[in-house]
Amino acid sequence: MIFNGLSEVGDDPILLVSTMYRACTNPNKVDLGVGVYKDADGVTAILKTVKKAEQYLVTHQETKGYISPAGNPDFNMAVQKLLFGDDHPALKEGRVTTIQAPGGTGGIRIGAEFIKTCKPDATLWISDPTWPNHYGIAKGVGLKTKPYRYYDIKKGEFLYEGMIEDLKQAQAGDVIVLHGCCHNASGADLSVEQWNELADFMAERDLVPFIDIAYQGFANGIDEDAYAVRHFCEKLPEVMIASSYSKNFAIYRDRAGAVTLVSATAELNKVNASHMLLAVRGIYSMPPDHGAAVVAHILGDDELRAEWEAEVDEMRSRVKEMRHLFVKQMAEKAPNSGFGYIGEQNGMFSFLTLTAEQIQSLIHDHSIFMMANGRVNIAGLTKSNIGYVTDAVASLFKS
Length: 399
Ligand code: LMR
Known about the structure:
With 399 residues, the chain is an alpha/beta fold. It has 14 helices and 13 strands.
């Protein structure tokens, strides 16, 4: 027997929140856990453009035969346009390969496998805090990891100087995992000046960026949010990018993502792509088709693309509105609670600067579900539940 030597491991800290929320019977319960967008009615609806694309596919798709390990070529081209815009030098030089992957997670996994193939002793530097699964993926591949300072959860402060200080210890050839926009979990992003400085810093030290971009469009706009990707790919010879379309197309369960590699030359790029495709073949052989086909159809049609951008604008605006309403209500209900920083941050996530006991009280006494470290999904707030949430948070500040 071999299947008898293990002890049970705990749930993933994000997925655990969903399990707790589902099990709760309080009619006032609020889910601020997993990073899924909800509309003004608290519903994760299917985008209109996605429905149209699906209808198109039902009518026009003629086969369910295999695609290929690289996935849908139209999707891969569309991903490159979203990430790089129309005329990025790396694209013109033929130094870019995009491979469709099962979600952003699949993209990170393939990227990490390729790093392991190229430099098995590379260290993956990961922001503290981060999306916990970055560690899970690195462990799965067998890459070493080290944290770098990024954000002080207790003070609600972005630690750019601390980040640079820590990254000074990275060795040439180490890989730095960066969140392209809407940092998960802090919502704190680098400014354009900081991205520029970081790119120069990394180029001087021969550090390789691995940009995880899962929320393009949720900070300031599709092109604006690609700034880091485009700038790093101009300044550095090698960049790895994992991108997800779960959030900005709201097709979470369809698992549409990609990994994009920029190599130093077109020749190297061809060789590198062959190794990445070998990794794909060995792990899942080929990616699922449906979500990527939907994205490719929307982005390949000018009218649908414009409609989709409007849908992304609407999601972004609603999250920003909830951020501002939260800050306003907290300032009224608990003037010294100090949540102003939430209005400045990007994307779905922010931390509540609360103690572990206060967070547990929100979860257990008020059925407001969030990660145990205080990460909240702002998109889980609606005009109907925000008063309940801010009352509960304010109650923690009353003695
Ligand atoms: C999150 O951070 O909540 C999302 O990216 C969902 C996930 O898979 O963890």
